[in-house]
Amino acid sequence: MPQHPDTSGSVEKIQGSVFSSVAGILAEYSGELFRFQVGDTWMEPPEGCRMEDLTVAGYPGMHRYAPTRGLPGLVSSVAERVTSRSGLFTAPEEVLISAGATGGLAAVLGAILEPGEEVLVLAPYWPLVDGLVRTYRGHPVPVPFIGEVSDAVGAVAAVESRRTDRTAALYLSTPNNPTGRLIPREQLEALAEWARSSNLWLISDEVYEDYAFTGRHVYTRPLAPERTFSVHSFSKAFGMAGNRCGYVAGPAEVMEKLERVSTHNYYSTPTASQLAAARALEGAGDRWVDRARKLYREAGMSSSRILGVPAPEGSTFLFLDVADHAADHEGGLNGLLMELARNGVAVAPGPSFGPYPSHIRVCFTADPPDVMERGMEKLAGLLSRV
């Protein structure tokens, strides 16, 4: 027990900014910066779906609270979208509009976790999931998976080896952040059946569903709908990261519990953000995605070629093992990160994504293609020089 006044031990274990070690160096750099550490896009949202397109005259009350479940029209549109895309009928009662996918994941974890319970997290993983689990007094358990598992049998063996009597849920992301890999259908089917037989919740982070470059994205929820929460994002889909709007689909009987958590966390998702999201679902968003997918794929191919690594299967990232470069650099990986920052190149450190002490992640969509290519060439040159 902490001796008050003191802070929570769980919070002490939550990582701060994953970029803080080089922030000061970047702030002092006077040349062109290449911010490959940021998972964002250079593209603005679809025309007609931006904040500048919303007016009080067109949307009276747009600055007031929205219903805690979400604007009814948007909830219905999302339910129809999920049904169409996943093939699993989804009713409005199975949808929660959230403050970004982050808010949606927080609502899920807050609703299902008891203090001390464990969440198996397929690694490499999105960095914030670790802190979200800890926020709700759970324990994240990394499961090395992407790049380690090659078939359904191996997938089940990986998670089973780390399951305990305290395990409550399994978290996965596909297309994966940070590796840019897709989890194949046969592995997802095996994991869903394992979760069912083990009586566990399944949390599927599918925010990059629109950006699968090879093959097709496989939706997890239809494989075990009675225990699966799928998390989605207008941020990643339509270049609306600053709007903070996403959604969760899950079992109807549990969604009311998610709504309780979200209500006491952020009350309701920003009304104007929901209006912009609703407009994107009227058609402009899908046209935007068609263009963005092509541009993102080209950026990913170009980046992988320059860096000499396999092309991404999806998402907006590459995950590089720089062990040889870090080993030859004074200070190891941290020293390499600082050296890159002193030359205006920022990347995300591998340990933020799990037990990957010699990796870095780069985002190839944060800057326009011409800027990105200059930056990737510079990064490749710096790595070859180390």
What does this structure look like?
The protein has helices at 9-12, 20-28, 72-86, 100-112, 128-135, 152-160, 185-197, 234-238, 252-266, 271-307, 323-327, 332-342, 369-385, and strands spanning 34-35, 95-98, 118-123, 139-144, 167-173, 201-205, 228-233, 246-249, 317-321, 345-346, 348-349, 359-363. It has 386 residues and is α/β, with parallel strands linked by helices. Helix 5 (128-135) links the parallel strand 3 and strand 4. It is globular and about 55 Å long. The longest helix is centred in the last third of the chain and has 37 residues, at 271-307. It has two domains: 9-45 and 285-385, Aspartate Aminotransferase, domain 1 (Alpha-Beta Complex); 61-282, Aspartate Aminotransferase, domain 2 (3-Layer(aba) Sandwich), CATH 3.40.640.10. Helix 2 packs parallel to helix 12 (332-342), helix 3 (72-86) runs parallel beside helix 10 (271-307) and helix 4 packs parallel to helix 5.
Computed structural class: alpha/beta
CATH top level label of the largest domain: Alpha Beta
Number of helices: 13
- Unreliable sequence segments: none
Largest sheet: 7 strands, mixed
Rg, Cα atoms, Å: 21 Å
H-E order: HHEHEHEHEHEHEEHEHHEHHEEEH
Number of separate structural domains? 2
The fold-level CATH name of the largest domain is Aspartate Aminotransferase, domain 2
Q: Looking across the biggest beta sheet, what order are the strands in?
A: 2-8-7-6-5-3-4
CATH architecture of the largest domain: 3-Layer(aba) Sandwich
Strand content: 5-15%
Distance between the termini: 47 Å
Percent helix range:
40-55%
Shape: globular
What's the rounded overall pLDDT mean?
Answer: 94
Task: Tell me the name of the CATH homologous superfamily of the largest domain.
Answer: Type I PLP-dependent aspartate aminotransferase-like (Major domain)
The overall strand count is 12
GO molecular function, one term: pyridoxal phosphate binding
Organism: Candidatus Polarisedimenticola svalbardensis
Domain Aminotransferase class I/classII large: 61-378
Cofactor: pyridoxal 5'-phosphate
